[in-house]
Amino acid sequence: MHPAQLPAFLQAAGIRPTRQRAALAAILFDGAPKHMTAEQVHAAARTRRSKVSLATVYNALHQFTEAGLLREVLIDSARVYFDTNTDAHHHFFDEASGDLHDIPAAAVKLARLPKPLKGRKVARVDVIIRLC
Amino acid sequence: MHPAQLPAFLQAAGIRPTRQRAALAAILFDGAPKHMTAEQVHAAARTRRSKVSLATVYNALHQFTEAGLLREVLIDSARVYFDTNTDAHHHFFDEASGDLHDIPAAAVKLARLPKPLKGRKVARVDVIIRLC
DNA sequence: GTGATTGCAAATCTTTTGCACTAAA
DNA sequence: TTTAGTGCAAAAGATTTGCAATCAC
Predict the structure, then answer these.
(1) Contact B1/A at CB under 8 A
(2) CB crowding B50-77: b at 16 or more within 10 Å, else e
(3) Phi, psi torsion values for A107, nearest 5 degrees
(4) What is the maximal distance between C-alpha atoms in chain B?
(5) Which residues of B touch A95 (CB under 8 A)?
(6) Closest to A74 (Cβ–Cβ): which among B75, B121, B125?
(7) Is the model's pTM score more than 0.85?
(8) pLDDT tens track for A60-78
């Protein structure tokens, strides 16, 4: 996305477009899908000489997630990945390299999913294929 | 499993059956499938008046996992669950209560799984159905 | 005995929080 | 203005580590 569009993009998501949030959005929503940790986003901001504190990175990532702009992916106990692809899809995780790759939802077919317990709705289904 | 069988059980898995490991195995492998965190195992040991340090709990859980007696399940970024069910199966995670429930592998049908990248083998497939 | 295991406390790492300061509307 | 957002440093949790003491074989 063009940097100039970011403030409007954030505003449309109900997020006040501050300088820091626009800088982080520019890193995350440049068009290429990404899976980044908070630390990686922070490092990327530093590389671009965007002054944003780590606490603000965490705040922003959670706000973006809550607004549906990002999605958390839990692969590794050590850290949370934030995925810019919020469509239903799944993941390959390469244990050797630590790389995460998207699998389009259509590539996986879930048949005979059991019914959730009474009163509960399925929020999301995650499929993680671990490779070694 | 009967407590008296635990030493042999551990030994069969290539693990030296120390007092602490037998005490932890008694908590974990009592027959009922469980999903426990290190802290929960530690608390259970304390309740039974088995003196085991938290560091030893972590050591033992990882050794049991490496030996194939347990399986790690990542659901929540805050902690790792150790599952006594090492057969292929999946999980319901109730976000409201934090409860984790097993789904037998047969209840989920994965069709059209994409081929892993060249040279890589599928180590394991995790399906997590998050309920709200 | 001898090497593996344990306990403890300190260290590490990720993430959160409290609060004074600053910026957006 | 007035409220939301930010930065910093400290706190919180989970997990790991270093090392001397202890245990299994």
Answers:
(1) no
(2) bebeeebbebbbebbbeeebbbebbbee
(3) -80, -10
(4) 51
(5) 123
(6) B75
(7) yes
(8) 999 999 999 999 999 888 8
